[in-house]
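#data-curation
PF: Archiving a pair of folding outputs for the training set. Convention for this channel: one message per protein, sequence first, structure tokens after, nothing in between. First:
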Amino acid sequence: MVNAQKKIKQTAGRDQLGDFAPKFAELNDDVLFGEVWSRTDKLGLRDRSMVTITALVSSGITDSSLTYHLQTAKKNGITRTEIAEILTQVGFYAGWPKAWAAFRLAKDVWAEESADTDGKAEFEREMIFPIGKPNDAFAQYFIGQSYLAPLSSEQVGIHNVTFEPRCRNNWHIHHASKGGGQILVCVAGTGWYQEWGKPARMLRPGDVVNIPAGVKHWHGATADSWFAHLAVEVPGEGASNEWLEAVSDKEYDKLQEEKR
């Protein structure tokens, strides 16, 4: 996996200590976060969160700073199951009371996932890639909830796209004057892929779909399963996406009936 370097912007030092300790604030915001945390081409944010949490708990630091880094770890893709394993491991080496204190904070941070009853947490445990954040930027082009986890922006763009049951994107076309298109690599669950004028194809883990530029298509989850695929952007000249009409419930439900 290739991690694109991402600049981390932090202002907590200046916000809280700027007048009292300006140099410390500068080192915190510009060096620790602006330089060290931003070296994501060397070590990804997810791994940096694991290292930082381990260091803080081992040092017995279970105050607001640990809460902040637990929240950051969740944003960086660490799941409830993973943080439980991390803190259990740390407990054996750093001390049981420290792990207990950390668990009290982690339980609150991951409270929403703990109350999850729709299978999201269970599905996330099925695959090696994180589900990521709600795909809000493209929500208007989807029916249902999808999630997006950027994996690489160097050489080729790769994203893990996750669909809740019944979620699907609109018909769309990847345009390019030369090259372009997209490759889907299915990693978990079951889904649908359909090109305009052709029968829909059911997708399972391990399936690969090659989508040339100019082909009208859609893809998404089946009604009874979460679904995730890697979306690989094929380099091309003049590349763009054209979003079209939604896949109606009538069209979608017909596929579900045929599946039975």
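PF: Second:
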Amino acid sequence: MSNFSGRTVLITGAASGIGLLMGKLSLKRGAKRLVMWDIDQEALQATGDELLNAGYEVTTQVVDVRSIDQIEQAHSELLNSHIHVDILINNAGVIVGKAFAKHTIADINKTMEVNALALMYVTHTFLPDMQDRNSGHIVNIASAAGLTPNPGMTVYAASKWAAVGWSDSLRIELEKTHPRIKVLTVMPSYINTGMFEGVTPPLFVPLLDPEKISVKILDAIEKDKIQLKAPFMVKTSLIFRGLLPQRAFDFIAGKIFKVYSSMDNFKGRNHS
């Protein structure tokens, strides 16, 4: 069983949404220090100051997780300050909610870089230190979109499929070589934040409350779980996909549960 007491937690995309919530909850659970990464300097400064004024130890770094140079520079700054990350939460994510043909090449690159490659970049940078200490926890916030197809989020789904496959494969590798380094893959459905504004949740799949799913993620870390799927109906998707012919699955997912129309009225955080 893991715990947060006395640990240093690094969260990407930490200035808002569930990243910020997980950061605050980590500190309340006894984390020694919170390292916050985000590209929004103003929000990062504000939230960091709020936590510092509350008496917590917080380090804020403006980092674009698409940039290996920025990741390595931030990592070096932490090591120079004798800060070693115990729990790494790869949370930063983006979504472009529109038909694939309407994506620009920039849309495609950014989505794949932030949602898939950045997880690998950041983990690749911090993993050697964890291996040297034979201790650590890597948490990858993927998505239920990494388990089933969904029109309107083609590249997003692709990025999350990549994240799920990489994260679980990394877990198995580390279980063989460094069993004290834990890996958790998180696959939530739509979370009720600005990122998914306008979505229509599928049948029996309610919008997830940000604070409740944040609590579940931290609970899963403490229990050394290897996967977290939420809500319950997400757990059944792989069963249906494995047992049913694809056309039958498409009918059930699309016509009955309305998964394939959930993005029809998507607006997102930028309303674009």
